[in-house]
Amino acid sequence: MLPLHLVPAHHDESQQPGEFVAEALYPVEQAREVLQRAVIYERQRHRWETIGESLGVTRQTAHERFKDAETGRQRDLIQPHEQVRGRACPVLHEAALHPTATGRRLDAWATAHSRNHAGDEHPVTATGHP
Fold first, then answer.
1. How many CA atoms lie within 13 Å of 88's alpha carbon, on the beta-carbon side?
2. Which of 33, 72, 80, 129 has the fewest Cβ atoms nearer than 10 Å?
3. Considering only CA atoms, which of 113, 46, 47 is closest in space to residue 130?
4. What is the reported pLDDT for 40?
């Protein structure tokens, strides 16, 4: 991320054209991705109206902005691989592709690293959520 004090107030011959704009755009794109993922997460539990209120927009505006992301995520859950140059490539994290194995690994880790879970074989998966 480019701190504000590093953007020059005058022309700098040592910089490539557009370099500062490109560097400034990166955190903006990252913030958009984080917001999109947050909306997808919230949609699992809340209505568009609630999300719109959090964004300071109407329910309809929130839906229009993020409906494609939500639809894409639902599609990824149904079809978790896409074809790239003739090969099936995962579009989801390994944990989502293999939830049972992931749960076992989380149970083992929690049992080994937490005194609160001593003797509990399923500290994560027994509750349905971590």
1. 6
2. 129
3. 113
4. 92
Residues ≥6 apart with Cβ < 8 Å to 51: 39, 42, 43, 59, 62, 66
Q: What is the pLDDT of residue 130?
A: 47
Q: ∠ CA 47-52-57 to the nearest 5 degrees?
A: 155
Q: Is 83 helix (H, G, I), strand (E, B) or coil?
A: strand
Give yes or no for residue 2 having a pLDDT over 70: no
How would you label 24-57 residue by residue, b for 16+ Cβ within 10 Å and e otherwise?
eeeeeeeeeeeebeebeebbeeeebeebbeeeee
Percent of the chain surpassing pLDDT 70: 88
- Angle subtended at Cα 88 by Cα 85 and Cα 90, rounded to the nearest 5 degrees: 120
Which residues are 87's β-sheet partners?
Answer: 84
Q: Is the pLDDT of residue 77 over 80?
A: no
